[in-house]
Fold these 4 entries.
Entry 1:
Amino acid sequence: MRERELLRHIYERSADLAGEGVIRVGPGDDCAVIRDSAGASLLLTVDQLVAGRHFDPERTPIDLVARKAIARSVSDIAAMAGTPICALATGAIPDCYAHADELFDRMATLARAFGCPLIGGDIAGADGPMVLTCTIVGVCRTTRGPVLRADARPGDLVCVTGRLGGSLESGRHLTFEPRVAEAVALSESLADRLGAMMDLSDGLGIDASRLAAASGVRLEIEAGRVPRHEGVADWRRAASDGEDYELLFTVRDRAGVERLELPRGTPLSVIGRVTEGAGCVIIDERGHEHDGADLGWDHGA
Amino acid sequence: MRERELLRHIYERSADLAGEGVIRVGPGDDCAVIRDSAGASLLLTVDQLVAGRHFDPERTPIDLVARKAIARSVSDIAAMAGTPICALATGAIPDCYAHADELFDRMATLARAFGCPLIGGDIAGADGPMVLTCTIVGVCRTTRGPVLRADARPGDLVCVTGRLGGSLESGRHLTFEPRVAEAVALSESLADRLGAMMDLSDGLGIDASRLAAASGVRLEIEAGRVPRHEGVADWRRAASDGEDYELLFTVRDRAGVERLELPRGTPLSVIGRVTEGAGCVIIDERGHEHDGADLGWDHGA
């Protein structure tokens, strides 16, 4: 099963949903967006954490399982420049697992620390690997409103927060800090000069290709400008490792970006530009173009 | 693992959440309730459907798997007298399962038919039984607002919609109609004379005990008045079979109830009364009292 291909089918069938009733943005972005009774935007996202796929059930401390379950969904809220306000969690838990109470206790504590207390959920026994889900509701407190994947325009600069690569080997996939404060700061400082945004979960190359497709533009990224974590051998690893949970975004004003200071001293790098066309290419130091769609994970493919 | 006991621990630890920030009702009721930016109530619920626990993966048509995944959460919205407006779904799907696309297609179609289009979700591969979740957002369109489990008072009548028992054997657990229209009609007709309400998922006895505990009252149910589906042998089966997804509610005005006609001709029965005290008893025709807490499922116990 190709998960992303399956999701693409589902998104295509739901393409007519946006604008129907309370729905502003349907499936396919980092969050769905609905209108509340006053017309304000509410963000909704859900993500799964499957033992053996997203964490090693033998070796991962309960604390970090709980953290990743919550933080992945918080990162989706950040990707829209939203702020999480509450969460629901489910667990399908193997009958032999003795720490379910501790796990949910940790999830509740961490969710509250991320600003989205756990206000509901469900627990069921299951004869298989643990499957956790976390649904988060978020709001947009900035005037810019939710930042979509579809708003990149030719002429924009392509930027990324933090550094990329080596997330699985280093354990950062369990401990990353969702970029909520950074996204809100970008949205407040840049307002309409902030173009499209998403969080990087499957690798810069493939994720940037998705942003390009959503916006109907082409992204040109310079390999030499992709910021790498220490120990990440080359740009190819940085662009394809996945699970970075950094923000990829586009900006309409170079001067604005270069002056920006992000919260917590988080680095900000300009890595490329948006042009007319389609797809994402990463251009190496010899000038060779590499197709972004080949760099990253297409889960299950 | 005793799921309900575990959930009870979680609820107890979250008891201070109600009133914090946007939270009106935290964990423990059929839905959580938050305030939107205009102060209106939004309902949130999530439920899981686990292959081998909630349906037979060998025999259940895809259509009915999809239906139950959505309808269980819709029933939670009905239990608060809400109306569902949108949904998110996840699937942890065995790698060998060839019908994931069809399953999600059916879930999307059914969710839309229930008034809550699927606007987001996630799919992951898993080496175990299929685990589906459905998160639903609902609104309260009636002036009565969300109907909680905690609002039964001594002197109320205890009522139930439809008939009970035999849901698993008959297959009704796959085809039941969530009581959204009935709940809205009750809420509109009765307004403040409607007391507490919940949907019956684990069996009348145990669920009524939970309503009694939430309200700090005692429920006395007359066995002979419990409405049974055809083929359900006795009151004990009707009170303990579970998965009825009918509404259990209390009312402050006998005359009002007896005049009520529910949508779709759904039956409405007065089955008992609320008194001072604690717990739920079901009184048989000889006058013997049976503890409701012993009648029903405590999953995994």
Entry 2:
Amino acid sequence: MKIAVLGTGMVGRTIATKLVELGHDVSMGSRTAESGALTEWVGEVGGRAIGGTFADAAAASELVFNCTAGSASLRALEAAGAESLAGKVLIDVANPLDFSQGMPPLLTVCNDESLGEQIQAAFPEARVVKSLNTVNHLVMTDPGRVPGDHHVFVCGNDERAKSEAASLLEEFGWPPDSIVDLGDISAARGAEMYLPLWLRLYGAFGTGDLNIEVRRA
Amino acid sequence: MKIAVLGTGMVGRTIATKLVELGHDVSMGSRTAESGALTEWVGEVGGRAIGGTFADAAAASELVFNCTAGSASLRALEAAGAESLAGKVLIDVANPLDFSQGMPPLLTVCNDESLGEQIQAAFPEARVVKSLNTVNHLVMTDPGRVPGDHHVFVCGNDERAKSEAASLLEEFGWPPDSIVDLGDISAARGAEMYLPLWLRLYGAFGTGDLNIEVRRA
């Protein structure tokens, strides 16, 4: 599948590398095509990986991962271009973290709004699915790093888009019954507002290789 | 132990009833001593249970549970009186839910603040511990309703207060290693901001008898 990964940070590089390993044609997008991280990643990962701007990457893809910093995601997607996102599944893994007040970060948006909803509202033709933002970048593509059963979430307004996203999650190693559909895109509030608890759990347990299993009667 | 339970809703009644069963002397507090819910509860639970106003209940206690609605908690604790809270462990199980915009509820406070912190700031002599707000009222006092291992959180600025709260959680049936210390009272942001996710999990799984197990490497 032709997949664009927008963002060249740890999340973007981890997901893009995994997608290449899985045999997908990956275009990785950065603000500028001359990005050092981008060039380095293409050099490491090889022939199936293509670097470019956000616009180049999105235009070349059938499905898009938003792995940019949450505070910059709307600008990055604007640069990618609404036409290049229209009709495509857009998997938003970003967290709207605000580090301007120091640590721990605050959220740039929460409570009556979420980044996932903002992206869907700004790009109504894109089929936005929020997912993977509740685990760190290594666990995203290698859930077996965390022992036992644990869950990952999807939400969005387009049922088929959620199914397509879930298929990719299964390719990443998430068992089908570990993928929980939280509902429409407004459920991104829940997924994003979990981050302050995740950060405290990271502090309490001293590892980012953690996730939650939902236990129920 | 002489324990005050402030709030006569489902959470307060469930916790107060469990405390009576465990042999504690429980004073349940309401806005008015003539509250129907209060009178009914005392009638049901019997001799060891004493009803009264918030002030009566707090004054008679060595430890206080805040089980009032989060949007009314600061007013209720003001009515209880700072003198009657001073030096006491105050276990805050409330969620700052705002139902004024319909369902699902928003939070009245979040992100750079939490109800737990507001209570600690308003009553600096109280030894506030945020806990139990991440599960529903039945699971609070009967964690075995949810099968398997799962976690409950404590946070607060006073280490001994957290230990005392943890002892009560153990009396409720929470195994010692299920109780996770998230840190100081500002971690209440994480515990409270988990609520939007909890509500979506409730929707996804169709039961409120749910909780999370933190899995980690």
Entry 3:
Amino acid sequence: MSEWLHDAGGAGFAHAYLIEEELYRGRSAFQEIRVIVNPDFGRMLVLDDAVQTSERDEFVYHEMLAHVPLVAHPAPRRLLIIGGGDGGLLEEALKHPLAEAVMVEIDREVVEVTRRFLPQIPGGAFDDPRTRLVIGDGIRYVSASAETFDVILVDSTDPKGPAVGLFSEAFYADVRRRLRPGGLAAVQSGSPLYQLELLRAVRAGLGKVFPVVSTYLATVPTYPGALWSFTIGATGGDPAQTPAEEVARRTAGFDLQYLTPAGFRAAFDLPPFLARDLGIAG
Amino acid sequence: MSEWLHDAGGAGFAHAYLIEEELYRGRSAFQEIRVIVNPDFGRMLVLDDAVQTSERDEFVYHEMLAHVPLVAHPAPRRLLIIGGGDGGLLEEALKHPLAEAVMVEIDREVVEVTRRFLPQIPGGAFDDPRTRLVIGDGIRYVSASAETFDVILVDSTDPKGPAVGLFSEAFYADVRRRLRPGGLAAVQSGSPLYQLELLRAVRAGLGKVFPVVSTYLATVPTYPGALWSFTIGATGGDPAQTPAEEVARRTAGFDLQYLTPAGFRAAFDLPPFLARDLGIAG
């Protein structure tokens, strides 16, 4: 098999991956799910032709979406994850001394396919006694549930299909209502290169319900353009101000592969081209 | 025209660019030179199918290879650039109060094609009275010349064809001999993802002639994998220790689009996966 997968990052730009082997291909009620093997990135989970994660670089996205907000909260005990069906985010989050982690994933088959073909990404996270996996619509969950959380993480796909509502102001307002005092929410907010309007909308939407909105970046080699954004809406202090010593203390023993104590603060130090694009004074 | 350019970053990974229009295609004595137009990145300079620079993101690579070493030197007056035919690096470097900038580029046609089709990348750099452009072999130049410099920047292509010698220990020894007291050299040292052996060899080679070797990273969206490395060999202090205030003072008014004062230090803060791969204690 010498087919290539094209993961588009704009009208005329894509990451291309040689498909050495296709381990799985199926269509769930929500999307096409594939697991391919690539010589450079190993096994890769692909949803509707968009690479979600790979054996080789999964740690970047999962460490950055888990530990930055969890460390920015002084003492998170209850966590909610919306999406994140591959379990990599959950696995990182459970390194913190949480009491409970509820994960609401809409597509059961993503969880099942990952557990079968990419078991090292969730590790033992789905069997952790602190984990409660809910197969259902995260939008409905935050709207209907009476539960509250210290941290809410939104690990969504691109704003297409079932994920569209995860970028809406109504959803952010519901997320805000599900937070305990001092709580915060973090969302993947897309590519600052080819989804700038999305990132602007996320920041504006979160800004309507949170006093503090702060965007940070990471370099995810398997996402188109690699430069990727995350945005936190906080009810407490500015997450960017978390001291490096606090990051080091709270992540000691985590065996991180991407995030460093100094890198935490640096991730919020947006390059001027982007700060300008977002209307943030330099 | 709906052809795509594939810029390979490994056996099974490439960045793919739609070629909206091809403005130039020719073969020099050294390589195939193309200028294409892409809807996402604008005009792109392509040498032997490898993207060298684009209108949209040229500032990342050029700012990082120019200003990090130039600011790490306390007062650079004489600069040598090896390669860098598109002039983007020269343009950034000339923002500093240099007395002279000598640029040795092997391929005259790269300079000519860039000036014709991508004139905003060099800007007025080639006409700056401080610039001396030498069309010739940089390897021979550092070996034969008796001139000395405060900073030497090596802006090479991948180690193929004429660029192979720019990654050799003999070349680094000659570079070292061309430096004035307290001088330093910086080289583009490849992708930490798919050219790790190259990066290791660069660090080892520089380590044989420089007491201080320090690698830093930037995210260049149009280079495969985006994460890119640069390595400095220094005869003086550790470049990474340059205070943010010094960076701010020395780059004031430069209108930088990527580098920030805090980002200077952060660029040297390698993610643990890479520090481990390079055998650097965390």
Entry 4:
Amino acid sequence: VRPATIADIDTPAVLIDLDRVEANLTRAQTYADAHGLKLRPHIKTHKLPLFAHRQIALGAVGITCQKIGEAEVMAQAGIGDILIPYNIIGRDKLTRLRSLHERITLAASADSAFVAAGLSEAFSGMQSPLTVLVECDTGMGRCGVTTPEATVALATGIARSPGLRFGGLMTYPAAGNPARTEAWLSEAVAALRQAGLDVPVVSSGGTPDLWRAHEVETATEHRPGTYIYLDRKHVETGMCGIEDCALTVLATVVSHPDADRAVIDAGSKTLSSDTLGLTGFGMLVDHPEVVIKGLSEEHGHLTNAGALNIGERVRVLPNHACVVSNLFDVVHLVSGDEVLDIIPVAARGRVG
Amino acid sequence: VRPATIADIDTPAVLIDLDRVEANLTRAQTYADAHGLKLRPHIKTHKLPLFAHRQIALGAVGITCQKIGEAEVMAQAGIGDILIPYNIIGRDKLTRLRSLHERITLAASADSAFVAAGLSEAFSGMQSPLTVLVECDTGMGRCGVTTPEATVALATGIARSPGLRFGGLMTYPAAGNPARTEAWLSEAVAALRQAGLDVPVVSSGGTPDLWRAHEVETATEHRPGTYIYLDRKHVETGMCGIEDCALTVLATVVSHPDADRAVIDAGSKTLSSDTLGLTGFGMLVDHPEVVIKGLSEEHGHLTNAGALNIGERVRVLPNHACVVSNLFDVVHLVSGDEVLDIIPVAARGRVG
């Protein structure tokens, strides 16, 4: 029997507030439209075909998936334009990538000649080339070529590789410094044009600086992920308010060993151990004074919890929404207190 | 096509070395038998009916599951004796617990009168009572009654409750101090006997002090979980060697942005963000000099990684094995380099 209201849902459970989802998606698309920026949402946050379709209906040019397995789920669900901004290596993955390429508009990325060579070998026999973006490290210190010179060298190699088409640049920028991202990208684009290469797409991403995405003037598209749900991290940085956050974890107080401490049935298996630099592992929406001091796998250990009672149900705003989606097989779609549906997280657990 | 050898497995993937599993299970059962201690392994680490059956075949008296959903999977697979050492609250869970009780030998726990009252109400109409252990906080500072007096009060209440049978005590002890655990439990047992209560079971747990479990002389059974796979945490504390660890994550180097840094395709979605107090997020078995300095969801960020090459495959020993089992839909069973089987992690993701 499907629960009619939130009070009927067994815990722990993920609640997705559909009204907030709609507001968050609309706000971002309106912003992007106002600035002539294309939106290519990253579905890693929700992993749901339902919301991918909604993002496209609102105006997104396509979606972003981090893994081939996620892209396969989304293509199966009818999404026709997917970027996989990941270095794809190995026979099995390349075979799957070819199969996807036959069905949808697909692009991938590379940050080394090794990756580009593998893609070229896999796609050289195909009718249409695979679009490949060069991943640029514009300051984050993760993947990506680290200089405009290396960008030109790799882009030139891709442009000359059988089976590949150089599609432009991709970066995941460090937060808080759009000017630096812009300087990096504009210098690289100038160098590429000087080398005779067309740069049709410059793709940046991230929710932390979503409202400043237009400051990266060279970017043609933006790939926000977390913006659909938002989370405690983005509340703490001031990017949004608690009232914008669409994903919460419903939990029950299962123990209250002393006056100060309480324990809920949401631990690292439901909230993840991600702190993202914050103190504590989430916040109780209706009890902001409570500290989620530690997590074991099935328990959240609270302090300053004198106001809570055993058996009471609480809503936890997690530090990091994306990882919570990956931990649950299903999510509950709600509007106010009403439960509208329970749907499988179709693209969760797709590690490859 | 099932991969024949580890070289054929796409990454990231969980590898379970069956020879090491067998050695770890046998070593613990031999130890327990030598000390007249019953073993009731916690299946949260492997979440696999295959290994639960093996643990029982080797001599375990039953298994431990942390959630009803895990117990349901194991009961369905034919496991007939399960302890759920968790405060079970709420109509839905109590209904499921009753259903389990009709099929298998079941015990639960409680650390408050609130939880005991809920269990009593649910089981008072049943033919046979539910066995309930009192959870004791012997020093860990998580769930559990915190004094022998509170133990007696709760046990007396359970013994008098319709539908319930007081089954004894349960604790998850703090590591490194079996003497303190023993002092706490023996005082509580003495107080219970003085109050006229029989204490058939005293259940302790944990892998960190597994080889010292016999020092808790009052305990009648022990619930180790991680001992089946072991992990970097237990290597670092000296509880085991790297050569005992049965679970590794196979990963591929996907980027090498500069001479020192490399990136693998195993991030927090495959290793979890658990540090367990260690520096770094795991270790590369064949490259102990490499530091897994940070994780994003789909990437592990390595430093001191000069010896690695893009496309190279590595085996990562995670900090915490249990949480990795929960993140993968399937695991690969291997012996040496040979892949014997790929099996679903049947009890993963059972949050309720």
